[in-house]
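Schema walk-through. Below, the input block comes first and the output block second. Nothing else is stored per chain. Lengths vary across the set, and this one has 246 residues.
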Amino acid sequence: MICCRKEIVMKDILLNLIYPRRCPVCNEALKQSDLYNYICAPCKAKLSYIKGNKCSKCGKPLEQFEEEYCYDCKKIKHIYERGFAVWAYDEEIKKSMYRFKYHNRREFADFYAKELADIYGVFIKHWECDVIIPVPLHKKKYKRRGYNQAALIAKKLSRRLEIAYDDSFLIRAVETKAQKELDDKERYNNLIGAFQIANNGVKYNKVIIVDDIYTTGATIDACARVLKDNGITKVYYLSACIGYGI
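--- output ---
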């Protein structure tokens, strides 16, 4: 693990000499001293890390210490087992995610994956999952954007945690409407039949689904439903940031 991380850092330093890496918050070129963390120190302090008491299901921050589940998870019976996100989806991380998804800032995935691994690595290892799978994009959207942002995070996370990565096991069979344009009920209906398992003969037992943003959990549940219908026993999720949901 240590050797792997050293290799990652050395590769990043060399690449930065040719293609200067930018901070995922302010979007300015990083100093050499900030490369290991992939972010400016002042900008890291601006982000709303999820700390303290968290929902035992989705990982959203809880206002009351004695509560076990957030408002959303009290109302919805999620299909996945459990999940975590690093940041609350506020204005700072929202700008970062926008650049990541729509302005080709693919290098931001290194920062998101590093924080997920550093903060939740112990929990993730305890899950003993076989594979990390990104929420898939439909092939038409992939062609338009040129990359799957969830896959970028998932692949980096796979390398850091030394867990297998598979972006071909779960596919998006239907080009659905953007979830951000829909209300909570429409989000769930929008994803009915959207995902399928590829007929590649691969078998897994426990799976981690990775996405960039978690809001109501509709996307993760839709993936988990298909996975469990096809023999997966447990499904967990990880996300860079999490919204406030319902």
